[in-house]
Each structure stands twice: as structure tokens, then as C-alpha cells.
């Protein structure tokens, strides 16, 4: 049962101690056991960004004319971002609260631009099937229809199909550097040529790669062109709170020039409170996010980020080699950068059951679907746990290979069935129903995973699968 506000205030140390106690069941990210969500290096760095955030914890970036220091900080963050993305002096943009806001803003911008300059009333955007889910959210929020580009065997978008999807209602094309599910960099150079020829904006989603790919390239890594060096690229989103190692939440959305950025702005001149203008989605913009983002860029500098990239790439290469050394497993596609996925090459070996075994060994492992696989987003911190991860992975494969029935138990059964439920619209409706229940007055424990795998109560995924099984039984199937 969740507690209401106390009648009388409590002592600060007591409140802080309870906050720490809340973390007892959270993922063990400080030990390198988590492969997404958190970008942690060490306590020294963590303390630094906390201090930097605290220095502007009360300031508000809502009005750039009020806290001029915040506007200066934002301008310098954007200038630094434009430089590493090989932009000209015309590249401009804003700091946002995270990658989702950056993606939402790009869709809003290009929808409004097409409406104003071309009279488009039924906007569409072209996305590869591997586009981040934030783009699907943007479609729903802003009423921009999605046209999906199918993938080739190497998980890159089929460019012939992409060309065929362009029509008078197309307001933008999306490419990713890299895409999240498999770590593949889309063929941005070729996509840029198509976009430029058709005079359609091309946005590059580099929320993951924006603050590491430039430094991998600086270190001599082979990275295909994907940034403002590609003529057709008109905007890029890049998260500082990922591989920039800033505090949550800090992302950037930049445009090739102000002609694009203008369409992101919101202005309302008839409000009783005065004329209102806002550069992005949020009204109040937390000053701490600005200050921590600026501070971390100064803290590391280019050489610091090059070193972090070296360590990350070393971890990625060792992990991929370890995965590929296991006969039943293989890395998917041709990932370039800090993340990758791997699958089972043996039809009798359930990759989800392997994931269950890894979870039982204390790793928080993410699952992919279409195709089924396990996912790893690698940071410099993971370099110290590579050997243990691969040893546990080999042991997990051995356990599952010796016990094929594990594919029909726990999370493996849950995720395996969920990936093959054919009625995706009904799945969406049921997930919405179950998910929203967690937000009733009084709240509830939000569990998206399989409770059975951890020996706990059924999670949301379990409930969804149980619903589908019962539905099929009622139909006599």
C-alpha cells in the first residue's frame, strides 16, 4: 500500500535513508549487470554530475530572457554537438529532456513545414521497420501516418522499397545511426541521396550513437558516413545522457539551419498571461539538465570521450567474439557501435530460455522479437565484466541444451508465445488495459516482465499470455 503525504514533516536524513531503501530490488547497474537504461561509470563521475545538476536545480529554462546563463549553456552544448556531428556554423537546435522529445519534435517540425510550404494535409513519414518506438509514439501524437520500409537480410532498409513509398504526402524520411534492436547503422549516405533528389527532409536518429560514433571514428574505427557530411541529412537527434554520460535527461535536436528549426517553435500571442513562446515540447525546462550536460562535456573533453569509446569498442569486440565462439549462438547482422543482438542458430535451443538462465545468474538481459534474440547495449563499464558474462552465457546455453523443456517454462514460454500471438491489434488493446491499471489511484507495482521467471507473482507479460491462452481455449483452438 502506498503512503499518502504525512501530516507532519520528517527529518531529512530519515527521508533520504528511505529513498536508499527503495533501491533494494533495483537492477545492480553499478556492478555492470545491466545492459540498457543506465550509463554509469563510477562513483566519482556520478558525484560530479550530481553536483553539476544541483548547481542549477532551481533554475528554469522556460524563458531564455530570464536565466541568460542557461541560454548560454544551451548554446554551447548545441555548438559542441554540431561540431562533433560535422555541422556547419548554420547548424542550430535545442537541448531536450530526452531522445523521445527530440524525435517527437522532428515529426512535429516536418509535419508543419510540409503543411506550410507544400500544403500537405495528410502527412506521412517513411520509417525502417527497426525505427525506435518513439517514432511510433510521435505518429500517434501528431497524426502523421507511418509507411514502413521492410528490411533486407542484413537488417538494413530495402532502398528500392523506400523509393516506392515516397509520395506527395511524405513529410520526412528516417534513418538510424545505429538502430536500437540490432545496432546496425542504416545506409544514410544512400538514403540522403534519395531524400535530396526528392526534396524530402531526412532525419538521423542518433540518440544512441551521437556521442560515441564520432569518437569511434576519431580512433580509426570504420564508421560509414551518417552525419551532416551527408548532404541530404537535415536534422539529427543525439542523447547526451547516453554515451555522453550526462545526468538524465539531456538530449539534443539539431537542424541544418534555422529554416527548419523555426517550424519546431510554438508561439501563442493571445494568452491572458502574455505572449508565450517555447522552442520544444516542455514548458518548464529543468536547468539541472542543462548544467549537467554542459559540465560533462567539459569534464571529459574530446580525448576523454575517445578513451571511453576505446574501452566500449574493446568490450563490444570481446563480447561479440565470445558470443560467436558458442556454436549455438550468432551475432545478428553487422552492428557498428556500442550495441548488438544475438540469436540461437539451433532450432532446438530457445534463446529466451538462455535469457532466463542469464537472469538467474544476476544479469538483466533484454529480449528482442522479430527475430527472437537477446540484446546488449555496452558501455565502457562493461569491459570489466566481459569474461564473466561470456562464461555465464556458455553455462546458460549448456543448461538449456541439456534441458529443452526449459523453453516451455517461465519467461521463455511467456516471451516465446507473446512474440507469436497473431492478433497484434488485440494485443495492443489488452496491454493498454493492463498497463493503465497500474496507474489507478493508489498506484500499483508495475511489472512488465515475467514474474514466473523470478519466482514472483505474474507480471504484465504473463497476464497477457494467460489472456491469450484462455481466449484460444474459449474458441476451442
Overview of the structural elements:
It contains 15 helices and 13 strands. It is α/β, with parallel strands linked by helices and 477 residues long. It has three domains: 245 residues, 3-Layer(aba) Sandwich (Aspartate Aminotransferase, domain 2), CATH 3.40.640; 100 residues, Aspartate Aminotransferase, domain 1; 62 residues, no CATH class. α7 links the parallel β4 and β5. The protein is globular and about 70 Å long. About 2% of the residues have low confidence. It is a single-pass membrane protein. GO terms for molecular function: carbon-carbon lyase activity; pyridoxal phosphate binding; transaminase activity. One of its GO terms (biological process) is carboxylic acid metabolic process.
Strand content: 5-15%
Largest sheet: 7 strands, mixed
Report the order of strands and helices: HHHEHEHEHEHEHEEHEEHEEHEEHHHH
CATH architecture of the largest domain: 3-Layer(aba) Sandwich
Radius of gyration: 23 Å
Enumerate the spans where pLDDT stays under 50 for 5 or more consecutive residues: 450-457
The domain count comes to 3
Rounded mean pLDDT score: 88
How many separate helices? 15
The CATH H-level superfamily of the largest domain is Type I PLP-dependent aspartate aminotransferase-like (Major domain)
Biggest sheet: strand arrangement: 1-7-6-5-4-2-3
Helix proportion of residues, in percent? 40-55%
Report the count of strand segments: 13
Shape: globular
